[in-house]
């Protein structure tokens, strides 16, 4: 019991390391990410795929008002998991960075550079007193110099580059499925199928198009494309992943 008051003292200090080198508030922020509905990113030979689960909401809630997939620039998309309000702040920051680079230099901001600017911004909130870390993780996917790139931002402010990843609820189960089934030479269509099947692995009653968000950025077009509910419903029917609401 003696250690508990001591731990609580470190809990209260966002910028104070515990004796074993831990920042408890950053760890708690990661727990907030785990409680968010899942998002998945897949890098294929032809582009990147971003898939988001909007979670089970009230039937009275308008599904289109829940956003999991966002456009940062013409060539970059974002997916989030964790606190929605925190995600909106980081997404707005990413958009300002991308727009500012176009206005200042007349060119697009690279996917890796954009990710590192976002993570630098996140990291500041782990060193400033009177502020808490962002309780959200982002997947940043896009095309840079003709190549697909896929990154994750962590509440600590660390960027990671991935071939395929999941963030949010059931991350470990989804990640296991991705690791077992991912192939680097997948087409975008195969990447979409992989992401949907990975999410279906943790969905008890199948998937419904209205509760999903899907976007792709292809090497050919280098343009962010948000897929419609009808397109998602077609994918779910084709892969036999549709839940009860899609079987009417």
How would you describe this protein?
- The protein is an alpha+beta fold and 248 residues long.
- Helices cover 37% and strands 23% of the residues.
- The chain has a five-stranded antiparallel β-sheet with strand order 8-1-2-9-10.
- Helix 3 crosses helix 4 (111-124) and helix 5 crosses helix 6 (188-200).
- The mean pLDDT is 91.
Describe this protein with a few key phrases.
248 residues, five-stranded antiparallel sheet, 7 helices, 23% strand, 37% helix, single chain, alpha+beta, Glutamine Phosphoribosylpyrophosphate, subunit 1, domain 1
**Rounded radius of gyration (Å):** 19 Å
Number of helices: 7
CATH topology: Glutamine Phosphoribosylpyrophosphate, subunit 1, domain 1
Q: What would you give as the CATH superfamily?
A: Aminohydrolase, N-terminal nucleophile (Ntn) domain
Counting DSSP E segments of at least 2 residues, the number of strands comes to 10
Category by helix and strand content: alpha+beta
């Amino acid at each position: 019991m003696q250690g508990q008051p001591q731990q609580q003292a470190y809990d209260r200090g966002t910028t104070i390391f515990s004796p074993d080198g831990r920042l408890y508030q950053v760890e708690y922020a990661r727990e907030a990410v785990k409680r968010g509905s899942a998002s998945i990113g897949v890098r294929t030979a032809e582009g990147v795929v971003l898939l988001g689960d909007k979670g089970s909401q009230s039937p009275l809630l308008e599904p289109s008002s829940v956003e999991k997939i966002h456009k940062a620039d013409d060539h970059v998309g974002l997916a989030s998991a964790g606190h929605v309000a925190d995600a909106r702040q980081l997404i707005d920051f990413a958009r300002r960075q991308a727009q500012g680079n176009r206005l200042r230099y007349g060119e697009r901001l690279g996917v890796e550079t954009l990710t590192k600017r976002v993570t630098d911004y996140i990291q500041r909130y782990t060193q400033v007193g009177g502020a808490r870390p962002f309780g959200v993780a982002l997947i940043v996917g896009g095309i840079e110099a003709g190549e697909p790139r896929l990154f994750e931002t962590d509440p600590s402010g660390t960027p990671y580059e991935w071939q395929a990843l999941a963030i949010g609820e059931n991350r470990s189960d989804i990640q296991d499925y991705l690791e077992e089934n991912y192939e680097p030479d997948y087409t975008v269509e195969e990447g979409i199928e992989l992401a949907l099947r990975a999410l279906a692995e943790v969905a008890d009653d199948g998937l419904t198009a209205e509760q999903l968000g899907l976007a792709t950025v292809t090497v050919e077009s280098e343009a962010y494309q948000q897929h419609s509910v009808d397109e998602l419903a077609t994918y779910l029917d084709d892969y036999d992943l549709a839940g009860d609401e899609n079987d009417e």
